[in-house]
């Protein structure tokens, strides 16, 4: 079960990376609940669809470092870059804890922290 849930999350992430937001939402239950810890909660697929429409002006770029699956849960750790309507990129590190029911994503608890991207420069000694 947990490996299947991992594959479902990977397919959902692939859809969102391509800008196929409806394809992503097809992996969510109608009563899905998303909680962004310390920020906001979304209840239902309609609320998630509205959030995606206003947040993902263009498909986000993300790198999943680890996917950890056990039972009905999959935890994803990684980094995310989202561009706003002016094309300015904001970088985040995240830990998403997904709960699955019947092969679909029913609940998300997202821990998201804005991060700085550092340019590496060499200094002369």
From TrEMBL:
InterPro entries: NTF2-like_dom_sf, SnoaL-like
Protein name: SnoaL-like domain-containing protein
Signal peptide: none
Family annotation (SUPFAM superfamilies): NTF2-like
Ranges where the SnoaL-like domain occurs: 10-107
Matches recorded under Pfam families: SnoaL_2
